[in-house]
Automatic annotation (TrEMBL), chain A:
Signal peptide: none
TM ranges: 12-29, 49-71, 91-116, 123-144, 201-221, 248-268, 288-313, 325-345, 351-372
Keyword match Membrane: yes
Residue ranges the record marks as coiled coil: none
Record protein name field: ABC-type branched-subunit amino acid transport system permease subunit
UniProt KW keywords: Cell membrane, Membrane, Transmembrane, Transmembrane helix
TrEMBL record, chain B:
Keywords, comma-separated and alphabetical: ATP-binding, Nucleotide-binding, Transport
Organism of provenance: Sagittula marina
Residue ranges of coiled coil: none
UniProt protein name: Branched-chain amino acid transport system ATP-binding protein
Domain of life, per lineage: Bacteria
Length: 399, 253
């Protein structure tokens, strides 16, 4: 189906099912229960799951296939966000032209940076991309203030022209982002007994685009182009002596992953129409590297899992504070309760980075193939033959 | 006029004269061996032929065109394929993928991007690759990952990858170096079979005299960067100059 092999079709169908049903899957606990804070099924977070999923899928096309480790992909994400916001300011609040412009501008920008950076390989390539991204960040933060609005960040205002739309609504407020009239912030709530589920327009727009992005990434992985990219990672000498020029292939992979990052940036701005320079900072570039490695570089589904996991930690684990811990252990005698809270305290709340760091360390040390390899091992333990890239045995709160 | 014409080639590395006044003509559809003691400049000469090094002086003509100043992938596209001393294959890829890459390179040139259809939908190329694998007795290993293969198999695969491109000239850089006697004999058989069944010119650099004398139609002896003698194998065997430079110390080693 869809021109894919059976194994890949199954994977795609699983991803489609998981993304479409995410509002249910991510809200497994009744609203009033003590575990409700582990629910991740609210629009803002679900949007972030899929947007960073797109970012990581694109990054994986470069890093997972060619092995070129870029430390500057956040720059393309930031450029995408700025382009989208400018489109909202000048043209209309429809997200379609905004997203198209984000992808195009990020593509052109990555063509320039890739063309220069790909003169070097290995650590020198990484440093070059890092340098470019930091330059972009510094420019956006200060010198290019007329375009980026500096440290305040670029926002839409009441007196923006919006030549194809309206500057302000009838009641004098700023119009909202939409897709041909369907507002991105629109939500529908569904209450089923003790559970409540939220369906957000914005999430489903992002989810459909992520499925398309994922589908394209499968096609690239299985195509001669994808094979050439893996060949580049494997042996550039043989590549050269087989009559192939690696440069156009790596540059194409770089630009494609830059366009994915632009798409992610454009979607981010479409969900919440503002863009700040911090989106281009090196920590943001590092985050997508972590996502890809955590999930499994070079696998199809890995980056999406990694993105989901990191965003889950960032948003859910960080909210477990001491009060929450005390309610968990309130059944214990006081001394023991305080001891348990004391032990767990560094790992949750503001300490979520520590937990994530330990998990990352364990994954890199014991599961070089990332979460996907973990899933495969679990699958093998239960005696089922697991095709590579399959993740149905996983229960990660990501899709 | 041979298919490969090397004229007055010289190459220095700082103060070291690696090659000087090298003249060599390899006739079409022959097997030409280049032998010589360590440090004679054999590998330097080979690197000058494939674009890895550019000679300081002289010219290298292949099939009527100069190869100088061209990069390795351009020279490969002209019809020269090279087998390395240590097999250079795509060790993260399967045997079949290793065979498909040279086929794509030959059909589509140095940088065509087919990003949409799948590799396996190229039925014609898949059939070709399978035939070649059958020719070198590796069809049963088609889905194997190459990293775990024996050195002999890797060598066999590398040769298959070069041959499937139907090169006009096949360059072999010590193809049996570090191989056990049985593997060496297998390689000789394979090369003989290649030589007899295809219209192909082979230039081979080799230490092992057994290999050289079983395969070569002509032999050039290189010593200290200059060709000493060039002749048919029977004459080389007894040549006093050659004995002095080379055979005397390492014959049938």
């Amino acid at each position: 189906m869809f021109g894919l092999q059976k194994k890949d079709t199954n994977l795609l169908l699983i991803v489609i099912a998981l993304t479409m049903l995410a509002p249910f899957i991510l809200n497994p606990f009744p609203t009033d229960s003590g575990l409700a804070q582990f629910n991740a099924g609210y629009p803002d977070l679900m949007q972030r799951f899929v947007i960073f999923g797109i970012f990581a899928i694109g990054f994986n096309i470069l890093f997972g296939l060619t092995g070129y480790l870029s430390f500057g992909h956040a720059a393309f994400l930031g450029v995408g966000s700025y382009s989208a916001v400018w489109m909202f300011k000048l043209l209309s609040m429809n997200i379609l032209p905004a997203i198209i412009l984000s992808v195009v501008i990020a593509g052109l920008f990555s063509l320039l940076i890739g063309w220069i950076s790909l003169r070097r390989t290995g650590i020198y390539f990484s440093i070059l991309t890092l340098a470019f991204a930091q330059m972009s960040f510094a420019l956006a933060y200060s010198v290019l203030t007329p375009i980026t609005n500096g440290e305040t960040g670029l926002q839409i205002t009441l007196d923006d022209p919006r030549i194809l739309g309206i500057s302000q609504t009838a009641d004098g407020s700023i119009p909202v982002t939409n897709l041909f009239g369907m507002e991105m912030r629109a939500t529908t709530d569904l209450a089923l007994g003790a559970w409540s589920f939220t369906f957000s327009m914005g999430y489903y727009v992002c989810a459909v685009l992520m499925i398309l992005a994922f589908y394209m990434s499968i096609r690239i992985f299985r195509s001669p182009f994808g094979m050439m990219l893996r060949a580049i990672k494997s042996n550039q000498t043989r590549m050269n002596y087989t009559g192939l020029n690696p440069k156009p292939y790596t540059l194409a992979a770089f630009v494609i992953s830059g366009m994915y990052a632009g798409l992610a940036g454009g979607l981010m701005a479409s969900m919440d129409p503002l863009a700040g320079a911090e989106r281009m900072q090196w920590t943001a570039s590092g985050e997508v590297v972590l996502m890809t490695i955590l999930g499994g570089a070079g696998t199809l589904i890995g980056p999406v899992l990694g993105a989901g996991m990191i965003k889950y930690f960032e948003n859910i684990f960080s909210k477990i504070n001491d009060n929450v811990l005390h309610t968990w252990f309130s059944f214990m005698p006081d001394g023991l309760e305080n001891l348990m809270v004391g032990i767990l305290h560094p790992f949750v709340g503001k300490g979520w980075h520590l937990t994530l760091g330990i998990i990352f360390m364990l994954v890199v040390a014991f599961l070089p193939g990332g979460l996907v390899e973990g899933g495969q091992r679990i699958g093998r333990m239960f005696g089922r033959k697991k095709p590579t890239d399959d993740t149905s045995a996983k229960t990660e709160p990501a899709e | 006029m041979g298919i490969l014409e090397v004229k007055d080639v010289g190459k220095r590395f700082g103060g070291l004269k690696a090659l000087s006044d090298v003249n060599l003509s390899v006739a079409e559809n022959t097997c030409h061996a280049i032998i010589g003691p360590n440090g004679a400049g054999k590998s330097t000469l080979l690197n000058c032929l494939v674009g890895k090094l550019i000679p300081d002086t002289g010219s290298v003509m292949f099939d009527g065109q100069s190869v100088l100043g061209r990069s390795p992938h351009e020279i490969n596209q002209m019809g020269i394929s090279r087998v390395f001393q240590t097999p250079e294959i795509f060790s993260d890829l399967s045997v079949m993928e290793n065979m498909m890459i040279p086929l794509f390179a030959r059909r589509d040139g140095a940088y065509r991007l087919h990003a949409y259809h799948s590799v396996l939908s190229e039925a014609e190329l898949v059939t070709k690759a399978e035939q070649m694998l059958a020719d070198v007795n590796m069809l049963d290993k088609r889905n194997m990952h190459t990293a775990s293969m024996s050195r002999g198999d890797k060598r066999r695969l590398e040769m298959a990858m070069c041959l499937i491109q139907e090169p006009k000239l096949l360059l072999l850089d010590e193809p049996t170096a570090g191989m056990a006697r049985a593997d060496t004999n297998n390689t000789i058989d394979l090369l003989k079979q290649i030589k007899d069944s295809r219209n192909i010119t082979i230039a081979i650099i080799e230490h092992d005299m057994h290999v050289v004398f079983s395969l070569a139609d002509r032999i050039t002896v290189l010593a200290q960067g200059t060709p000493l003698v060039e002749d048919v194998p029977e004459k080389i065997k007894g040549h006093p100059k050659v004995k002095e430079a080379y055979l005397g110390e390492t014959a049938h080693a």
